[in-house]
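seq as requested:
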Amino acid sequence: MAEKPPTMAKEAAKDALPASQPKPAGNPAFRMMGLPNFRLKLPSRNWLIFLSITGSFTSAVLYDRYHKKKAQQRWCNLVSHIAQEPISPTQLPRRITVFLSAPPGDSLRAAREHFHEYIKPVLVAGALDWDVVEGRIEGDVRAGLAEKIRKRRKDRGERPLKAAEGEEAKGNEDFLRQLRDSAGIKESDDVQGDLILGRHTWKEYMRGLHEGWLGPLEPPPELSQEFVSAIENTPLPTDQPPTVDSISSTSSPSSTPETSTSTIEFDEPKAPVPKPEDQKVKEKPKPPAQQPSFISPSAYPTASLAPSTPGSIQPSTVVPFPHLLGFLNTPTRIYRFLNRRHLADDTGRQVATLVLASHVQSWKSDGAIDSSTSPDALPSYNREMQTEPNLVEAASTQQGWEQEGVLEQEERDWHKSAWQSREGDGERIWKERLVIDSRIGEQMRRFHLGEEDEKKAKKDDGVDPRAKGVWENFKEMIGWEEEDRGVKGWEQGLIGEESD
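struct tokens:
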């Protein structure tokens, strides 16, 4: 009998074996719960790229935010003891003045957000009160500070050469001061101070400081005439409320009491007259610009110092305000966005120095500037000052002060509109070189942080002592807080003897 081929024998052997049941895949517990079978596998190439980029950026943002909060809390802890110091009920808290101005090429909102995010937490931790001087356009801070100083000079007894007849109108501040004096409320005896945000605001602050203490109390005749003419030439709104075409009434000023009960009859409403297409809606007039400067930088050497000028001007501190615009600067803006912890640390340090006010020092002078030096060799803030010979001549005769180089690096980030000259613009403080008179520069002071405070801030780990841990927050969330039953007897020292 013929033998079967080997392949047929193997198949017959497989058929003879009992059929094995398929092994269930996945976790049986998940299968009983109705969950799908999850298999561990690596994502695809595109998913790996997407997750790596988003995860890295998210980690960098969270890391920066965490250390930013620690840096701010470190400086808040340094000044928090001031808020615990009691003051008299008839004494006002310490008050400072904050100067904000819209950065070049942007609105005032950017400066406000920077103040609320980096400066306000430290001021609140130190229980300080503050007044804000805001500038929406270039020159507003200068005009506001100069007017504030002129009012202070008038309060100290100075009067203009041609004083106006009659008493001056008293404002709200004077009325409030009278109420406080009658109630016996006094201002704080602590040193005040000014906080300036950004290089552009610092330039306006310096210009307003010189104008207030070196300029006259009243504007020169030519400036006052220009300002009045500018206001008169401002178009007024022509929109008038609609009037009734014909109103017939028997009542008139000469009517007798018998006709006082007459009625008013209105004509039928007429169809609205269509306006011509070429007639455009007139825009609302813009508010007039701020009052021009009473004195120019070229007149500083010949101007006389005000008799009521204090021996030392109240100290100030300048806070950095880096502000960069432009699509091509996106890489730099992203880098700064991921390193805001350094800005928070630097800003917190400057604000804490002002809040503590433990050390005050004068600004330094770098010596005389050679008058033969070209404008390019001077501390260059703007090359366009070559077209202003009077300003260069006035600056060359002054000393080189430390105030001139404060936050000078911020000018490289300014928008190009800050350097462009346009017709019809007023004074351009930002693009001009900062000129400082020696009489004002010598009296200026700034806040300085002591070595002990510096070491104390470095040792602080930046943890809020009032902050609760995760376990405390969880117990508070579920309402599982331990009841405070008072101090135990053995904690009060009420332990008696064994014989009692």
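The radius of gyration is 37 Å.
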